[in-house]
Specification:
Order of helices and strands: HHEEEEEEEEEEEE
CATH architecture of the largest domain: Beta Barrel
Helix content: 25-40%
Number of helices: 2
Number of strands: 12
CATH superfamily of the largest domain: Rod shape-determining protein MreC, domain 2
Strand content: 25-35%
Distance between the termini: 131 Å
Shape: rod-shaped
CATH class of the largest domain: Mainly Beta
Radius of gyration: 45 Å
Number of domains: 2
Oligomer: single chain
């Protein structure tokens, strides 16, 4: 019973304090309302900050994924652009050879290997039967004659170059005529023996293919006369050395002609 009265007195006292406070103060001071609302605001702010952090983390992850996808797409586009650029270069080479050497040029192939020794001088090219390559196809480049196809597989072919000792190319001197056969020579030169001249052969003259032998189109540059060898006074034929027009060591692509 005593507890009941104590609770009643506390209740009445609080009521009187509330009446007095509201009657004389008029409104709750800002400091009191702020103090009361502070815990609630802290909880609300913490929740909002947590949500914002989660959103930011998700956005960064998505951004990284988007950047990775864009980098991959850019790399693919760059690779495709480079392949297209190489294809354009191949077609330009083919057109140049058709225009300046022979309309029979049909295939452009990359050089993938070079075998050189005193007994053999061959190139391996990245084209074969599936690309229409057959044995006996003349091989050239914009700078001049390279050789002839001697072996073919499905995806590769072997070219005997004009530097090979077994190579035989019918030649003439441009604007001076004549008739002879060029043979591969050790040391990176081509030797023309027993050449039948129509005019004096001199260092610097251009040597080109003829139809002699029926292997190569006429008029393809073989090289430049590098040395005219001494002539026997009783011999009308001449011999000279030719510096090939094509540098096989730096050759990257070749053009193949339809066989004669």
């Amino acid at each position: 019973m005593a507890s009941f009265f104590r609770a009643w007195y506390v209740f009445v006292g609080l009521g009187l304090l509330t009446f007095v406070f509201t009657a004389f103060v008029g409104m709750v001071p800002v400091q009191v309302s702020s103090a009361v609302s502070l815990p609630h605001d802290l909880i609300g702010n913490a929740g909002r900050n947590l949500r914002a952090s989660l959103v930011a983390i998700t956005d960064r992850a998505n951004l990284r994924a988007d950047n990775a996808a864009l980098r991959d797409a850019l790399a693919d586009a760059e690779a495709a652009r480079r392949q297209l650029e190489l294809r354009v270069q191949e077609l330009e080479t083919l057109l140049e050879v058709r225009r300046n050497q022979s309309p029979g040029a049909v295939v452009v192939a990359p050089v993938v290997g070079w075998s050189r020794s005193p007994a053999v001088d061959t190139l391996t090219i990245g084209a074969g039967r599936r690309d229409g390559v057959v044995r006996g196809m003349p091989v050239s480049a914009p700078e001049g004659l390279v050789g002839i196809v001697v072996d073919v597989s499905e995806t590769r072919s072997v070219v005997r170059t004009l530097l090979d000792p077994q190579s035989r190319v019918g030649v003439a001197v441009r604007d001076k005529g004549g008739q002879g056969v060029a043979v591969g020579e050790v040391g990176g030169l081509v030797r023309v023996d027993r050449f039948i001249p129509e005019a004096t052969v001199a260092v610097g003259d251009l040597v080109e293919t003829t139809s002699f032998g029926g292997l190569f189109p006429r008029g393809i540059t073989v090289g430049v006369v590098a040395q005219v060898l001494p002539q026997d006074p009783n011999e009308l034929r001449r011999s000279f050395l030719v510096q090939p027009g094509v540098d096989l060591a730096t050759l990257t692509d070749v053009v193949l002609f339809t066989p004669q």
